[in-house]
Design a protein that fits this description.
CATH architecture of the largest domain in chain B: Beta Barrel
Number of domains of chain A: 1
Shape of chain B: elongated
Largest interface: B-C, 56 and 56 residues
Helix content of chain A: over 70%
Oligomer: heterotrimer
Chains: A mainly alpha, B alpha+beta, C mainly alpha
Number of domains of chain B: 2
Number of helices of chain A: 3
Number of strands of chain A: 0
Radius of gyration of chain A: 23 Å
Helix content of chain B: 25-40%
Order of helices and strands of chain B: HHEEEEEEHH
Structural class of chain A: mainly alpha
Amino acid sequence: MSAFFAQGGYGFFVWSAYGMAAIVLIAEVMQLRARQRALLARLARLQRLAGTASTDTQGTLGAAPGQRQAK
Amino acid sequence: MKARQKRLILIGLALGLIGLASALAITALNSNISYFFSPSQVIAGEAPLDHVFRLGGLVQPGTLRRQGNGLLVEFAVTDNRATIQVAYAGILPDLFKEGAGAVAKGRLRPDGVFQAEEVLAKHDEEYMPPEVAKTLQTAHAEGVSQTKTPPTAESAGASH
Amino acid sequence: MALNPFKFAAPAVFYPLANRLIPWFWTLTGILLALGLYWGFFQTPDQLGGNNAQKEYYRIIFVHVPAAWMSMWLYVIMVFWAAVGLVFNTRLSFMMANAVAPTGAIFTFLALWTGAFWGRPSWGTYWDWDPRLTSELVLFFLYLGYLALHAAIDDQRRADRAAALLAIVGLVIVPVIYWSINCPDPTQCASLHQRSNLTRIEGNILFAMLTMTLAFWMYSFATSLMRLRTLILEREAEASWVQELLNPRGGR
């Protein structure tokens, strides 16, 4: 097992390369999941708000994401 | 429909220009802007004498000499047509060995010896376990000795 | 343009399709990654021979080469969708280009990073201004430029078009990267980076490398579709199909 991590004494180079790959790829996936979740939550909240207001549903819903896009 | 055709033409034109630009870039890469100079080019005076440049080629077998504590090294770099003596103080990379490709960065001393500040090892694109590589290499060496074309630094460094 | 079926139908159709496809791509990514890493670390020789007598550090090849390939392929795919978007003025194509770009940038960064940690033990340096390394760095800057330009323009449609143009112009770097080591006459392309030749790679090493490449392809599909899904939802938030999606029962 320790021989596997040592990689013949070149563990630093091998694991620096693989470690960064793992970090970056996992971070990308986490960021994507978080972004989708936050967006769904926001859209649902907006729809609830619009539902209680019960007037101009489309206008309210359309405005908020539009503003965020323009950011 | 007219607008779409116009855009198509514009993009076709853009792509054509890009093709042209890449062709130019490739020719530029191929010609004068050399990453390194071969020993024959240095002998012919093509390399700049007033500033740092890279010298590339094969480390001539039997020329590697270590002095003192082993940090002072001398070796000859060849492209099988010309040879340049190189002096270097420092640790050589793992893959550096006689008969293999190397790139040295430094400047030419007045005495004709190349004083290197940095020595890098070049390796080839063959990824084989040692046993397989040995059999392949002997076969390859025979092939080379038969055809004996004058190889330059790059072909020698890259394809053996 | 009014006839264009993409304009309204596609995002609504594509969103549920992406949702269904994503888990499959993740499954394939997982299987291929496990197989590729296992093969690369346990079924390959520890050391190489011949004129390329690398030690264990050559195993960086299993992440470096696939990442470098993805960096170029994803750029070509991005340019393809950007060009389709410019010609047919379809929103979904621009979104596809936008969805691919960050993943391409990430793989370009990984190709550079893993290459540095491979170059140090083998060549003797983390970085050198060799044609291959330099052109790959330019590719990284192009990805960043694309993302930055798109983020800098407030109007979505203008941002899409400007970034698409930049991507298309930047396509020039892809053949340069390729030819920087693969030019027909090796005496003409002097570089520190070795040439590439799949026929001169031992079977197990090649198998692990190609399996990892497939894994990265699947990963790219999965992340691009995830990003596309979010982009569609962000841009179409006001569309009726999104409202129905969020609130299936509620009549609006």
